[in-house]
Amino acid sequence: MTFLVISREEVAHHLSYEDCIPLMREAMIALSRGKSSGILRTIVDLKGGGQYGIMPGAFEGGAFGAKLISVFPHSEPGAKSHRGMVALFDPEDGAPACLIEAGELTAIRTAAASAAATDALARRDSRRLAILGTGEQAWRHIEAIACVRPLDDVRILGRSPEKSEALAIRSREELKLPSIAAESVESAVAEADIVCTVTASPKPVLLGQWVKPGTHINAVGSSRAGPVEIDADLVACSRFFADHRESVLRQGAEFLEAKAAGRVGDDHILGEIGQVYDGSLAGRLSDDDVTIYKSLGNIVQDLAAGWFLYCGALEKGFGTALSLE
Questions:
Q1: Helices assigned H by DSSP within 176-220
Q2: Of all residues in the chain, what percent are helix, strand and coil, respectively (each to 5)?
Q3: What is the 3-state secondary structure (H, E, C) of 240-262?
Q4: 53-71 pLDDT per residue, tens
Q5: Which residue in 140, 195, 127, 132 sits closest to 159, CA to CA?
Q6: Which DSSP letter does residue 159 get?
Q7: pLDDT per residue as tens digits for the range 117-168
Q8: Fewer CB within 10 Å, N or C, the chain?
Q9: Residue-by-residue DSSP string for 214-231
Q10: How crowded is residue 250: how many other Cβ atoms within 10 Å of its Cβ?
């Protein structure tokens, strides 16, 4: 019995945003149509602030497997915070088929999912992007959003002015985007058409009073009940879309806080982003709507991206074959 191992470097080389963004659209449509199955992620808290997550699932008649991942936000400088593996099984005979480095795959598919949501929900004339946070997902979101909108203004703000400036310089040099480090959240988002919150903050960093009409927000940094990136005012005034309704009802921190405050009910979740993609649910209704895509991440995204890589490896000959016998 042999299976393939696909390394971080191979994931980075063979999983482009141009490929992954449409993969995320199709995966979320499948999720919303009941063409996939799974259970809510299990998160185990570890000593020292780390977490261990388990995400199993399957596509109807297709790939199945699980992601096993650790999140250590206080790792040594330069180390990735998300490390683990995606295990895929052959849908024909159930044999182990592939093991993929999960940190790089997660980084790409998360930003690609936000880009797909942005393409569906942001105004067509959106040109100005604000990024709140300076970790890995900040850079990934700049790359991915630039694939769906022609950006002419990028403003970046994190806790460290030095990291904010470094990310702005990288964006100017590598992506040729006009980018600056903002001095405050208010100044970063004041004229933004698209805002991505990709922080590890336990309390709101983005308030509704700072957001102009017509803005689209990708709320990404909080992936469990507890840490909150955006306040109840912003949730309440928005057209609010979930990646997966059941997950947000159980683990969507910003929605749960607004609900606990009596600002919204369960019906404030208008539906899932996959329903917007397939045309069964209206997204933006007017240029003044504030739209929110709440990203928790779902195993179908990992399965879709992982199966694409596995099929590519078989066709192109990358990956390392190992034996379990």
A1: 185-189
A2: 40, 25, 35
A3: EEECCHHHHHHHCHHHHHHHHCC
A4: 999 999 987 889 999 999 8
A5: 132
A6: S
A7: 999 999 999 999 999 999 999 999 999 999 999 999 999 999 999 999 999 9
A8: C
A9: T-EEEE-S--SSS--SB-
A10: 14
Q: Name residue 87's beta-bridge partners.
A: 66, 99
Supply 9's token pair: 């470097």
pLDDT of residue 60: 86
pLDDT at 239: 98
Give the per-residue pLDDT at 76.
Answer: 58
Counted residue by residue, the chain has a size of: 325
Compute CA distances 104 → 8, 27, 101, 236, 248, whole Å: 6, 18, 7, 34, 24
Q: Which residue has the tokens 């203004």?
A: 153
**Residue 217: beta bridge partners?**
195, 292
Among 58, 97, 107, 108, CA closest to 313: 97
How far, in Å, are 23, 89, 299 from residue 93 at the CA level?
24, 8, 21
**What are the two backbone dihedrals, phi and then psi, of residue 302, each rounded to the nearest 5 degrees?**
-70, -40
Query: Which amino acid, residue 36?
Result: S
Looking only at the bridges linking them, the beta strands covering 36-38 and 194-197 are unpaired
Q: Which residues lie closer than 8 Å to 76 by C-beta, 6 or more apart?
A: none
pTM of the model: 0.95
Residue type, 314: L
State residue 320's pLDDT score: 97
What's phi and psi for 186, nearest 5 deg?
-55, -45
Six-digit token pair at 264?
């919204």
Residues of the chain scoring pLDDT < 50: none
* Predicted pLDDT at 74: 61
Instruction: Quote the CA–CA distance of 307 and 301 in Å, as a whole number.
Output: 10
Q: How far apart (Å, rounded) are the C-alpha atoms in residues 313 and 89?
A: 15
Give yes or no for a contact between 289 and 215, defined as CB atoms under 8 angstroms apart.
Answer: no
Q: Using CA atoms, how far apart are residues 290 and 239, in angstroms rounded to an integer?
A: 6
Give the tokens for residue 223: 């992936």
Check if the beta carbon of residue 40 is closer than 8 Å to that of residue 246.
yes
